[in-house]
Amino acid sequence: MTVLSTIHKLKNAYPEVDSYGEIAQTFVCPGGETMNAAILLSRLGLSSAIGGPHWGHDTREVLTSYAQKYSIDYDGIVMDESYPGVKDLILVDDRHRTVFGYFGGYFSDSVHRWNEPDRKAIEHADIVAIDPFFREASVHAAEICTEYGRPYVTIDCRVDSYLHRHCAANVVAREYRTQEYRDEPDDKLLSQYIDSTDGLVVFTSGKSEIMYGRKKYGVRKMSPYRVEVRSTLGAGDTFRAGIVFGLSEKWDDERTVRFASALAALVCTRMPIADNPPSLDEVENFIACGGDIR
Question: For residues 236 and 202, is the Cβ–Cβ distance under 8 A?
Fold first, then answer.
């Protein structure tokens, strides 16, 4: 998912209904799980190529400029001047973010304004990240990865899905679990996810405990890093990028999850991601200092 985001940072806490909220800052920049991850991975030293929604006449210029800034290969993106492109409006305070978008109409449209998976790009990739939102195209991307033996990381997909069963890692957010498995306790649900794949499964829960595991060792837990939060926007996208990076470096699961948690924590101290992504040195120093920002 690559979108153009207009982000309003509120001066105070999110206002109640029929009241007033003061806007402190406004940013117009790239957003979406894929664009955020590509920017972060570039800053960490990995090269990436992206695909996804067509870029339209309202989104092309800004998205292209940021892709060029971070040396992200966007040759697989279709430029479509016949429509505006995918955009959203986001209100954030220190602890919350509320997204307003057009995604319902975008995904219910009979015209699919996203590209199909690039077989050649997948064949030459070391590791792939797949967003589950693009229906058959997302599954097809996973099938190509399986065919070529390329590990892929995904997010927020069902325990019985092809995407989950064949993944190298699946990061499942609390928001998704609440929507899809409201009555299922996390410990029981995580065991089901672990039993359904040979990959790493991670349950994130914001500032609460991280749960993760594999078939060979079961469930483990880790406390997330505590920081002074400026915005939680993009923390989940960042965590997934950290998992991609850890797997690409062939780290063990504990180190990979810890790195992803540290990367997400650092992103929560700054905004927007696109203008100030953490460097590898910053993340490693943060971990070495036990979560202190120096």
Answer: no
In tens, the pLDDT along 194-210 reads: 999 999 999 999 889 99
**Which residues have CB under 8 Å from 30's CB, separation 6+?**
2, 3, 4, 5, 36, 39, 62, 63, 66, 67, 274
pTM for the model stands at: 0.93
Tokens of 114: 């996203």
DSSP per-residue letters across 95-163 = S-EEEEE-HHHHHHSSS--BPPP-HHHHHT-SSEEE-TTSHHHHHHHHHHHHHHT--EEEES--TTSHH
Structure tokens at 189: 């649900």
Asked if residues 140 and 102 have their Cβ atoms less than 8 Å apart, the reply is: no
CA dist list (Å): 118 to 50, 69, 75, 145, 157: 9, 23, 10, 11, 21
What lies within 8 Å, CB to CB, of 113 at 6+ separation is: 53, 54, 78, 80, 83, 86, 106
| Residue range 150-179, pLDDT digits in tens | 999 999 999 999 999 999 999 999 999 999
Burial 146-184 (b: 16+ CB within 10 A, else e): eeeebbbbbbbbbbebebbbbbbbbbbbeebbeeebeee
As separate numbers, helices (DSSP H) first and strands (DSSP E) second, the chain gives: 11, 10
Cα distance between residue 181 and residue 19, in whole Å = 34
Find the distance separating the first CA and the last CA of the chain, reported in whole Å. Answer: 33
- For the chain of 294 residues, list the mean pLDDT of each consecutive stretch of 10: 95 92 95 94 96 95 97 95 94 88 81 92 97 95 98 97 98 96 95 98 95 96 92 90 98 98 95 93 94 68
Provide the 3-class DSSP secondary structure of residue 77: coil
Return d(Cα 253, Cα 21) in angstroms, integer: 42
